[in-house]
Design brief:
Blueprint: H1 18-33, H2 40-47, H3 51-57, H4 61-86, H5 93-105, H6 109-121, H7 129-146, H8 149-168, H9 175-187, E1 207-213, H10 221-231, E2 237-241, H11 262-273, E3 276-280, H12 290-300, E4 309-314, H13 323-336, E5 339-340, E6 346-347, H14 364-379
Helix pairs in contact: 1-2, 1-4, 1-6, 2-3, 4-6, 4-7, 5-8, 5-9, 7-8, 12-13
The structure holds flavin mononucleotide (FMN).
């Protein structure tokens, strides 16, 4: 043990790094023997500082544990941010999350255990709750950045709960099971429900209404309408957003062969699995947005949309009601063989000012219209 009660300059109570070193030592003590092993004496020994130094910086054990929890959470969130930044645009989030959990269970297991020990300690120590809540909020925010506020919250809860179960499971869930779990959390359906580990199931099977948005704009009114629809799906249905439009390659019939681009496979798979489709698109220059027409072009050759009950909600607040884009949408959908459910199609103008902080449309008239459209669309599903 290094003893730094040597009187060297920079090692007294004013040593700016000492508090942090003591905090890291507390984390090391937790890693070694759990929260119960944390005492001022044990932490001082690990940090190589005099006992008086730990009590100087942290009057109580709870102060010390709260600092350790905050630091562990900051490391964890920094790692998650790095993971999020490394994801390619349009990456399959379910697979990426499964890989992240697998990494936390294997290569990063020791660190994961420490983080959970400290997190759980907050159950008995109210002093730690500010740090545990800040951690929860940071994780929720991070996942929401890739999805939407409600899904972010759901994913944070699913991710943390699953990781805790998986740490204790023997054998731990496989990557395939984890992917199925996250796919279901994200999209309401699983690619192979009968192969999902029973430990990870327990979610009622629902049919999916796939939500296709024609706008890539971050503050999109069309996207806000569809986010709102997600929360208003009728019983037995999950309204599931497709968010891969920006990653689709330009349509070229030469590229539409046995093994098309993964983003195309993903789009077609989602359409194929959906029971119905709801579209929301703006009009650009008197027509459908190019990116959305490109998406539709990728569906014309296949049989994915064929006969699926399909509707649109037109949110245009302009005088022309984006009529040209919607006339064009009808024509393209006819090429795809979609069954247009006329009574589910609606014009519900959305003004940017009615979108709330969560990115949802607050206008009750619009919300009621969405509920009606979804109910009519769902009723058309055989
Ligand atoms: C380049 C461009 C062209 C547009 N052309 C039309 C148009 O022809 N007809 C129309 O009604 N609105 C047009 N708009 C307005 C958009 O449809 C409107 O801003 C809409 O809210 C965009 O949808 P979003 O909020 O989901 O991104 C155009 C907007 C842009 C940026």
């Amino acid at each position: 043990m290094a003893n730094d009660n040597t009187g060297k300059r920079g090692r007294g109570p004013t040593d700016p790094t000492r508090r942090q070193r003591i905090t890291l030592a507390a984390i090391a003590v937790v890693a070694e023997g759990g929260v119960a092993a944390v005492t001022h004496r044990a932490v001082a020994a690990t940090a190589g500082v005099p006992l008086g130094s730990t009590t100087y910086h942290f009057a109580t054990l709870d102060d010390l544990l709260a600092a350790a929890l905050r630091t562990a959470a900051e490391h964890n969130v920094a790692k998650l941010r790095e993971w999020e930044r490394s994801l390619a645009p349009g990456a399959d989030l379910a697979t990426a999350l499964a890989d992240l959990v697998t990494y936390a269970l294997t290569d990063d297991r020791a660190q994961t255990v420490v983080e959970y020990e400290l997190y759980v300690a907050a159950l008995h120590r109210p002093r730690l709750r500010a740090a545990s809540t800040a951690w929860d909020n940071a994780v929720t925010e991070l996942f929401a950045a890739r999805t939407d506020p409600n899904t972010g919250r759901l994913l944070a809860a699913a991710f943390c709960g699953l990781l805790m179960q998986a740490l204790l499971a023997d054998p731990p869930p496989t990557r395939e099971e984890l992917t199925a779990f996250f796919r279901r959390s994200l999209h309401g359906t699983s690619p192979a429900p009968n192969r999902v580990d029973p430990r990870l199931s327990g979610v009622t099977t629902t049919r999916a209404i796939l939500l296709l948005c024609g706008s890539l704009r971050s503050g999109s009114t069309n996207a806000a309408l569809l986010r709102t629809a997600r929360a208003l799906a009728p019983a037995g249905f999950a309204a599931v957003a497709y968010d891969g439009m920006g990653a689709l390659p330009h349509f070229n019939p030469d590229d539409d062969h046995d093994r098309p681009h993964p983003a195309v496979v993903d789009l077609r798979t989602r359409i194929d699995r959906a029971a119905a489709i709801l579209i929301c698109t703006p009009e650009y220059a008197g027509a459908l947005p190019g990116a959305f027409k490109n998406l539709l072009d990728w569906t014309v050759g296949g049989v994915e949309i064929g006969n699926k009950p399909t509707a649109w909600i037109n949110v245009s607040a302009s005088g022309t009601r984006a009529a040209d884009a919607h006339a064009s949408l009808r024509k393209v959908l006819e090429y795809t063989g979609a069954t247009i459910v006329e009574d589910a199609c609606a014009h519900l103008p959305v003004h940017g000012s009615t979108i709330d902080d969560e990115g949802l449309v607050a206008d009750q008239k619009v919300r009621d219209g969405v509920v009606t459209s979804l109910a009519v669309l769902a009723a058309a599903v055989s």
